[in-house]
Amino acid sequence: MKVLHVTAHDNGGAGEAAYLVYKGLQEQGFDSKFLCMYNLSSKSDVCDTSNNSKISNFLFKVRHKLMSYLLNTSDKNYSFFDKGVYSINDSKELFRHLEGFEPDIIIFYWISTFINPKVIHEISQNSTIKTFWYLTDMAPLTGGCHYAWECEGYLNECGRCPALHSYDDNDLSRKIFQKKKHYLEESNVTLISPNSYVSQQVQRSGLFKTSKAEEVFYGVDSDFFHQGDKAKLRKRFNITMTKKVIFFGATNVDEKRKGVEYFIKAVNLLYDELKSRDTLICIAGNSNGLLGNIKLDVLDFGFVDYSMLRDLYVCSDLAVIPSIEDTGPIMSCEVMMTGTPLVAFDIGISGDLIDTQTGYIAEKGNYHQLAEGIMSIIGKSEAEYEQMTTACRARAVNICEKNKVISDLIKVLTIP
Fold first, then answer.
1. What confidence tier does 85 reach under pLDDT thresholds 50, 70, 90?
2. 349, 332 contact by CB (below 8 A)
3. Cα(119)–Cα(138) distance, integer angstroms
4. Which residues pair with 147 in a beta bridge?
5. Fewer C-beta within 10 Å: the chain N or C terminus?
6. Percent of residues, the chain, with pLDDT higher than 90
7. pTM of the full predicted structure?
8. Long-range contacts of 52-59 (CB under 8 A, 24+ apart)
């Protein structure tokens, strides 16, 4: 069986999740091809469309920049990338990039600005190819934004879009939404949700409320993200074993949806208690000067590779991932796979991963509860903490271990 994986980029959280699925299916004997708009990782087995059609790629860039200028979408928090301009606009154009590869299945991932929804419609109507859309954020459900925040426009048909600072019912967001509806409501495309939180968003959405999303979690390599020797790693990082270490990380720490403001408020609220326990805050990611607002001692590692990131998970006593808008985050799966307890808000995959034995779930935006969660783990006895780390590893293996996830996905792909 031949499977085509289509995503705009092969890097970042969405691209890496897609690539892991691609490699996982290959390992299970599926003949797979990975196609993206730009090969930013320089992987030899990733095919991109930019080199194959330089003229059309140039014209796409010009059109997209012009649309961005005209729209002046200044609220970056919504990530309104979809301007109704796409690199590939019909199925024939897509297939020309496959160099004779004839897929039985196509899985679309993060395809904003890359694949026109019309392409999915044409494939569904004119071929026997089974199509799937693996949701990596909210973009498939909306009229252009990737994160809706408190806006509920996507429950109907968008319009008056806060991302566009629009008060027009018939603005670009509604036009894009209506085009999606036109092409997708008669398309036999199966949605794949990475967790129960996203499944609920699908069920509420104006585009897919009559559809059922198949649930397949993001996968994590359990051999790579393993429990390690905490004492050895603490020595390497020059951190004593007597310290309590709290981890926080994000590619861009100052990105609003990653919730750093709530993390800072929570640890500052606990300053006296955490200081008395000789607590250290470890940060990974581009912090952009925010760390000066934390009263406790901070060790800032900046942007790190995956090996270093894993080792930071292991040497920490707990991780706090206070995302307030997220489809994952995949980091939650990685942290728990190393046996490190997790404190997070009740969004994304956190509600599926965390229970009283593996961490603490706080109400979204409630930093007081976030602080309670931190102390509930910091205050455990050595025996209680060891039980928690064992439970964390077991929970992660049961939910998001790579081979299990690929097995679950195969079941979905092969449904008659």
1. confident
2. yes
3. 19
4. none
5. C
6. 79
7. 0.91
8. 52/96, 52/97, 53/97, 56/87, 57/87
